[in-house]
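Dear H.,

Thanks for agreeing to be a second pair of eyes. The structure we're designing against is below in token form, covering all 173 positions.
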């Protein structure tokens, strides 16, 4: 029993480590100058279209793949924003859920923290060469946050009602 309590005491605070890693990762992407960021987005597009070309046997040339990647830059960047903040929201909401923050409080705390971080991140970009803060990006980030928090609530509730319910019944005996 003592070992279980000690492990909980040590491991529960460590559940926030993925959130801290995501925040560092997001800030490191924001520190990239405009040219570096564009090059990274371009490379992601080339990789995605190369895989799509191989999987769907499209027969695209490397020039066509390059052209498609150039055209898709806006969508690649916005998808990256959405995905980063979705992952941040999940990595913030799950530890809060474990600590007992549930329902609308989870939405307010995890969602509010992540949206505030998105605003801070956009402000941080204003100090980076070739980058500028955009309200649209904060809105896209917020959509990712909302989906991440809602998904965390659904998974947490489902787990409590199915997988972990038998454990709570044992404790009540």
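And this is the sequence the design step returned. I haven't edited it by hand at all.
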């Amino acid at each position: 029993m003592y070992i279980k309590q000690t492990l909980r005491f040590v491991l529960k605070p460590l559940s926030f480590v993925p959130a801290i890693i995501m925040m560092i990762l997001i800030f490191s992407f924001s520190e990239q100058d405009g040219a570096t960021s564009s090059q990274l987005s371009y490379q992601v597009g080339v990789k995605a279209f190369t895989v799509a070309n191989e999987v769907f046997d499209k027969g695209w040339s490397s020039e066509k793949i390059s052209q498609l990647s150039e055209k898709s830059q806006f969508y690649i960047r916005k998808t990256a924003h959405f995905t980063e903040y979705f992952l941040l929201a999940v990595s913030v909401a799950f530890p809060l859920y474990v600590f007992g923050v549930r329902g609308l409080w989870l939405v307010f705390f995890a969602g509010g923290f992540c949206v505030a971080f998105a605003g801070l991140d956009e402000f941080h970009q204003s100090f980076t060469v070739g980058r500028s803060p955009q309200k649209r990006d904060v809105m896209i980030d917020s959509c990712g946050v909302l989906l991440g928090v809602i998904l965390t609530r659904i998974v947490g509730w489902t787990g409590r009602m199915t997988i972990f319910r038998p454990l709570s019944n044992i404790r009540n005996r």
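Two observations from my side: The chain has a mean pLDDT of 91. Residues 2 and 40 are 49 Å apart (CA to CA).

Warmly,
E.
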